[in-house]
Structure prediction request, 508 residues.
Amino acid sequence: MKWASSCVARSRKSLLNDRPDAPAIPLARWAGRQLLQLAEETGSKRIAALLGETLLGERAVLNDFTIPGRQSAGGGCRLYETRDGWIALNLARSDDRDLLPALFRDASLDPRDDAGITSAFSLRPSANLLTQGRELGLAIASTNEEPASPPIALLAEGQEVLRCPENRPLVVDLSALWAGPLAGHLLSLAGGEVVKVESRTRPDAMRQGDPALFALLNQGKASALVDIGTKEGRVALIGLLRRADIVIEAARPRALQQLGIDAREILDSQPGLVWLSITAHGASGVAADWVGFGDDCGVAGELSSALSEAAGATGFVGDAIADPLTGIIAAREAWRHWRAGKSSRIGLSMSSIVASALAEEQTCDPDLVAHELVEWANATGTPFPVCAMRTPEGVLRPLGADTTQWLGDGAC
Amino acid sequence: MKPGTRLKSVTCDTEVMVIRCGVGVIECGGSAMAEVKPPEATALNPGFSGGTLLGKRYVDADGEYELLCVKSGEGSLSVGGVALVTKDAKPLPASD
Prediction:
């Protein structure tokens, strides 16, 4: 794997903040090195100006989050003690709780009763809960699991094209929330033309849920809206995908298949196309269908077990940390493969990216990582470390403002 | 039937996880589903052969039953002879 690896020489000094005693966000240095490398490869001054702690911490600072303990910074994910370990369960979606009686195989469980849920976890072994939860489509992780997939997997390759260095890629971003849109944003900063495509019936909920972060991640992108429930919509979308240089999607494989979108077939018809499949735990095999979000993927990526080992505390590290780390790596992989001109489908596993970043930091400087984790645990409940905050420089297009230009008249 | 029970079709490859259920008989391809798959398949009833889709949730009109398809097959799901319908995809979270 080609991470930006020389630990010390390429680290950048953090900007001083107004709380010099605030802890560093663990893995922010690693993120900074990857950003620096992305800046070098793309020649983007705007990426060069970004700091790792900014991308890892900006959501938390925008929302006044505190350093998390057993409840994630954003509040949607919790760590529960089981009979033999700890499980992180993310109940971010409104109807996730309806699945809890099935998770515990107990019809009498009240899914709104948090004490009852805590008690149900304590009676059961982690492995059974993990298997059942993943089968039910819950975002669930154990502090004691090995990554199911490599962080970056080359899933398919196709034909090659010659790239002119002055070309800029057309990026079609089908993803929502944080990791995929951040990848699209970094590609936009690198000079790509990015079209964010949203489903008319399921648009990116972050637009309303977190408008400030949404504006940062989606500035400078065109906005197209498609009705994937109609044949015209699906045909228009597939037509756009066939013209793309880079596609970003973060869906489970069956979701695309059921829409009639076949990445392999589009890859074969579009020489040089780079197709990124971002998933929680890998984009092939059984793990491709496991759901996950940034906080539970951080747990699956062994960050909470590292925290426990270093500090004796049980808690989350960072704010949905798998999201920004994955966004950075996804952008870099996309750029590299696009420049190489060989069509390829690349699977990115959010939990494995966290695990690899942690392993690399621990190899570089185990004492520093342990020290940062101890400081992090000691600061639980205090405000998130203030990072170099930024404001959007690019225009945020209204939802669907560019539909006709990119998808034609019948798409929505 | 407990929620969380995994049921298998006796007529096709379909498997479901029970999310919620009443006391009626859960069927696939026109025949009652079972926790253990019998060695010999029962013939698929053509009236219940629309197929199941992996990852879709199937519900009845009263909201008494909800099944998650964990393996797709050729049969379609019903309770006491009344077909179940797919539920809309889960809304995305507003942030994660």
